[in-house]
Specification:
The protein is α/β, with parallel strands linked by helices. It has a domain at 1-81: Response regulator (Rossmann fold, 3-Layer(aba) Sandwich), CATH 3.40.50. Helix content is 34%, strand content 19%.
Length: 120
């Protein structure tokens, strides 16, 4: 099972619940409500193995989820990406090399997805 996980979501309640669910499985998790802080965490290869990110982000100063996933892959080609998308945005996930979770998505869905990501 891969670890640790960088989790990015603007909804702090969802972020806390998903982080707790991942930690309950024994995974190390770094949770961020800021895209830029999450991208900085991805700079250290030993720290992050999986990025979980949502499609959109309400903060104008933060990259949206698609940009965040592409930036992560540019900086870390080895990073595994789990991309949370609502059904109407699912087509934007094509070609980013990520496991797509089409919403609505709950913490159990995220745990199951991370457990399916192969460790390397």
């Amino acid at each position: 099972m891969p670890a640790p996980v960088v989790l990015v979501h603007a909804d702090r309640e969802f972020l806390a619940t998903a982080e707790a669910a991942l930690r309950a499985t024994g995974l190390g998790v770094a949770a961020f409500s800021s895209s830029l802080a999450a991208l900085a965490a991805l700079e250290v290869p030993a720290i992050a193995k999986v990025l979980i990110t949502c499609a959109d982000f309400p903060k104008a100063s933060d990259p949206n989820g698609i940009s965040r996933a592409l930036l992560a892959r540019t900086r870390r080609p080895d990073i595994k990406v789990v991309f949370l998308v609502p059904p109407e945005l699912a087509h934007y996930g094509d070609g980013i090399g990520a496991l797509l979770l089409i919403g609505p998505v709950g913490p159990a869905d995220i745990v199951a997805a991370v457990q399916r990501v192969p460790a390397e």
